[in-house]
């Protein structure tokens, strides 16, 4: 790590052992268009902000010729650069996934599973740079996940942007205009009811976030590798946090490749359609994903990247603007 001339700033260069697609790997941390905490600039750089254990920081990541360059600013710059390989999936067991697929595709005892595994192997080969990385920041992933509960994405993302613009702080360093750092848990606990309403988040989601903020230290303590199961237990012990929200958090904070988002409005139909040509429900999705246990979330991500969707013949999930209630 080298200093680049600004207090609280640094740079790190890292060469992954396999192809890496920055946008695919980092896009799960983007919460809709115009997310104040995530940006991709025309030069190909991905910017994101984070509230680290050492304070707020801004990270800029680029890749050229197989080498990753990370630049960071702010009190938490050193922490972000130290965690850069983990963020980009350095610990992601892609070789284990390849071995799993090879074994399933070569199975003679279950032709249907073999065909499904061959299909998944094919779509994985089209996205060789996808990695499941981890931020190690649990509460940071929790707030937008709660905002996304039971509403369409654009409603949740609007609430996220409004709250960050109202309570966030400017991103350190030469970040693109408008970038902000999420406030600390103690600030989330002080957001008044009328501002939750202005953001479009009703009382249930507001209470869930405020209560989780009170337990943020315990949640962050699970941020190390291999502690996703512990995080799941702690998260689901909190009121308002179920299996879907826990999975969404652990996918990002823990880089858990086996945390499928059970309870999602669209995913079962998408997975069922891609793997069997028929829609299914959560139970059916889990049955289809069972041969890929250990990598079920990864398989879902790969399926989503294909763009395969069943015909839109049913009712759409309604947009509910809670600001008008």
From TrEMBL:
What InterPro entries does the record point to?
A: Alkylbase_DNA_Glycosylase/TA (IPR051912), DNA_glycosylase (IPR011257)
Keyword field: DNA damage, DNA repair
Residues annotated as coiled-coil are none
Keyword flag DNA repair: yes
Record has Cell division as a keyword: no
Q: What is this protein called?
A: 3-methyladenine DNA glycosylase
Native species: Microbispora corallina
